[in-house]
Design a protein that fits this description.
199 residues; 8 helices; alpha/beta; homodimer; two-stranded antiparallel ribbon; 5-stranded parallel sheet; Rossmann fold
Chain lengths: 199, 199
């Protein structure tokens, strides 16, 4: 069965790929708005860990709406949530048997409720799978330590391809670099560099 | 890392074992009250699919409470839920790095809320994992078709080892066979006979 997985190059979506690869032909799909080339970092990670990779083009109008929301809110949560929902809708229309993302049990954003999952499945005739949603933070951290080589650093220094990078770039372009710090709190990001595969 | 998985011999808990075996040393643990020998069916399935197996002894007092609850309610949901919570508490005290069960996204019972999962982890210093909680019914059915050889039939005819078999036996012993049908609706059960492993 063919499965498309929303992929950022970070530890959660990489671990999700490892959980699914026994059961599905997994293609890693990095969503982007065409604003920056950050998706290339996800492709490099996909190559390093040995998965097929394709970009997933999102609607630039959704990025503009998300940026407005983030600027109004003063924090990114709701805007990121809008983009994630849009990305899942796009991915669900790509003809896969199943689609997936890297959301964990303890994630505050993005989240996909049971009702949203069911609606996505019913409308698109596709299985939606969140393979990490039964894993807490501690379990994910321990699996990452055991399975992945990871680089950790502050958001602005790590080369990965989640929605945040492009939304930051749009805000910086439209409102100046100072506006970014006002909306996005400092936090650590991760970027996977390799997978320890069984010998 | 050592992981104990609550195991009935059914398709859900068998699929959960397959999802976890890449990352953990999995032991299948079948909870029982010492009322019937139904746990032996789970051991046969565990042997067939190639996993380590041990029984997990539950407190017979919990079975009595669950039976009372089921008789009062006229349906099994709350009683089964009580037993599942007790089984997870017992399993969490067994010294594993992680414990798991086969609950799915669409299960009405048993369920483990995010708060219950966190509490179990904090009190016992163990990771609790529900590897199927991000999979809907359709995804599980398709994976089972692809990966498992399964026998399907009505609850009373299928030899498996979930809590239901022993609770039914207690009710039949105490109140006669007719009392069982009044509390447990007819539904299909499954029993796994083999796993299709990659060549």
């Amino acid at each position: 069965m063919e499965l498309g997985l929303l992929y950022s190059g970070g530890k959660d979506s990489t671990l999700a790929a490892l959980l699914l690869e026994r059961f599905y032909d997994v293609t890693l799909r990095t969503a982007h708005f065409g604003v920056t080339d950050d998706w290339q970092h996800a492709r490099e990670t996909a190559d390093a860990v040995g998965f097929a990779f394709e970009r997933l083009q999102l609607d630039p109008g959704v990025a503009e709406e998300a940026v407005e929301r983030i600027r109004e809110d003063g924090f990114p949560r709701n805007g990121i949530q809008q983009v994630h929902r849009h990305a899942l809708e796009r991915l669900a229309g790509e003809g896969y048997d199943a689609i997936a993302d890297g959301t964990r049990r303890d994630d505050r954003v993005p989240t996909v409720s049971r009702a949203q999952a069911q609606s996505l499945e019913d409308r698109h005739g596709v299985d939606y799978i969140a393979p990490l949603s039964g894993f807490g933070r501690g379990a994910v951290d321990r699996l990452v330590d055991a399975e992945l080589d990871v680089t950790v650093g502050p958001s602005e220094a790590i080369t990965r391809a989640d929605y945040e990078a492009e939304l930051r770039a749009i805000i910086a372009e439209e409102h100046g670099p100072g506006a970014v710090a006002g909306c996005f709190p400092d936090h650590e990001q991760t970027h996977v560099t390799d997978v320890r595969r069984p010998e």
